[in-house]
């Protein structure tokens, strides 16, 4: 039996280890980029989450590497072109974290509507700001969902349960597909113009980087509230801060940042911003599913079997 060597650099739920029992697993969670370059040559497979940057330079010194597994969804930390050029397979676990991200998104929508984090923070200061804390109801308001993939669709279903009108835009889906995902198909500018809440569920690509810039904010309804649990970099953070300060944007809830961690930036510190440390996929259930799904997929790649979630 071949004993494949698998390197884990961003942690992996222990459940996955039993799936990989026939392999040699080195858990080097938290390893630095320089050390990774020194050891990568010895491995057949690399399993990462989002922290490890898999660059062309790293792949150039990984002659044994056959597969990279992303225990989760976004693969923007992996140089896909370089992997493809070297014949390295890339797989992810795109289904595993859907509900975790959708549920956090809904939590943030509610947190923005009622200023729940601020209400709690003031209670912990011994204050009682009942009069100041007048929020808004979701019922009857319009939620615009940009990106109607798995997560956007689950957010749409939850919004409908709250009695919201739901508009959906996705360049990869037909209007009928969007209707089937319980949103009213609308073009991008329409969604921006008509929504009381906007939720972003799009990948970070060269096309979507900075998509939410000053020009986009100008198209939005006054007092819009924005939630982003997708990827840092989709929102131009300088433009967002300006839009919040001008009153155009009433509030923003951000789980992702252009640079992570962002530290106590002006955006994070702003009273109209709710910030969470990229916890979208951080549930017991999602991490277990992501680890199991990616472990199975990595093993199948090593064994030359049919793959369900091949990215490259
Ligand atoms: C882009 C997108 C959605 C989007 C969704 C997907 C590649 N891609 N791009 C802009 N899957 C909304 C606005």
Topology:
Elements: E1 5-8, H1 15-19, E2 24-27, H2 33-39, E3 45-48, H3 56-60, E4 67-70, H4 80-85, E5 89-92, H5 98-114, H6 116-123, E6 142-146, H7 150-161, E7 165-169, H8 175-180, E8 184-185, H9 188-194, E9 197-200, H10 214-219, E10 224-228, H11 237-245, E11 249-254, H12 266-269, E12 273-275, H13 284-302
Parallel strand pairs: 1-2, 1-3, 3-4, 4-5, 6-7, 6-9, 7-8, 9-10, 10-11, 11-12
2-methyl-5-phenyl-pyrazol-3-amine (9EZ) is lined by residues 146-147, 149, 169-172, 188, 202-203, 205, 208, 211.
Quickly describe the structure.
By secondary structure, this protein is of the alpha/beta class.
Tell me the strand percentage band: 15-25%
Average pLDDT for all residues: 97
Please give the CATH class of the largest domain. Answer: Alpha Beta
Rg from alpha-carbon coordinates = 21 Å
Main sheet?
A: 7 strands, parallel
CATH architecture classification name of the largest domain: 3-Layer(aba) Sandwich
Briefly note the structural class of the backbone.
alpha/beta
Number of contiguous helices: 13
Strands in their spatial order, largest beta sheet: 8-7-6-9-10-11-12
Approximate shape: globular
What is the CATH fold-level name of the largest domain? Rossmann fold
Which spans have pLDDT < 50 for at least 5 consecutive residues? Answer: none
Write down how many β-strands occur, each being a DSSP E stretch of 2 or more residues. 12
Named once each, the bound ligands are: 2-methyl-5-phenyl-pyrazol-3-amine
- What separation lies between the terminal Cα atoms? 27 Å
Query: What sequence of helices (H) and strands (E) makes up the elements?
Result: EHEHEHEHEHHEHEHEHEHEHEHEH
CATH superfamily of the largest domain: NAD(P)-binding Rossmann-like Domain
**Count of structural domains:** 2
Please estimate the helix content: 25-40%
């Amino acid at each position: 039996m071949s004993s494949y060597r698998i390197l884990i650099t961003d942690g992996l739920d222990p459940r996955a280890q039993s799936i990989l029992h026939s392999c040699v697993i080195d858990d080097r969670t938290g390893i630095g980029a320089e050390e990774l370059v020194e050891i990568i040559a010895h491995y057949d497979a690399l399993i990462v989450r989002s922290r490890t940057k898999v660059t062309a330079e790293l792949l150039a010194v990984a002659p044994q590497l056959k597969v990279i597994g992303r225990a989760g969804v976004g693969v923007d930390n992996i140089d896909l072109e370089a992997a493809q050029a070297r014949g390295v397979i890339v797989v992810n676990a795109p289904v595993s974290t859907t509900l975790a991200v959708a549920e956090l998104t809904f939590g943030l929508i509610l947190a923005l509507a009622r200023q729940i984090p601020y209400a709690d923070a003031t209670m912990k200061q011994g204050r009682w700001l009942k009069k100041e804390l007048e929020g808004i109801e979701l019922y009857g308001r319009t939620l615009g969902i940009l990106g109607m993939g798995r997560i956007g669709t689950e957010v749409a279903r939850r919004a409908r349960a709250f009695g919201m009108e739901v508009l959906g835009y996705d360049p990869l889906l037909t209007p009928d597909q969007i209707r089937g995902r319980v949103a009213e198909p609308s073009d991008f500018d329409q969604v921006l113009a008509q929504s009381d809440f906007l939720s972003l569920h799009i990948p970070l690509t060269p096309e979507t980087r900075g998509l939410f810039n000053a020009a986009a904010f100008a198209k939005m309804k006054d007092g819009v509230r924005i939630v982003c649990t997708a990827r840092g970099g989709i929102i131009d953070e300088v433009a967002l801060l300006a839009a919040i300060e001008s009153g155009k944007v009433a509030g923003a809830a951000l789980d992702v940042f252009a640079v992570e961690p962002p530290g106590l930036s002006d955006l994070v510190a702003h009273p109209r911003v709710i910030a969470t440390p990229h916890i979208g996929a951080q549930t017991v259930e999602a991490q277990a599913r992501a680890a199991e799904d990616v472990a199975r997929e990595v093993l199948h790649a090593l064994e030359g079997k049919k793959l369900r979630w091949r990215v490259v």
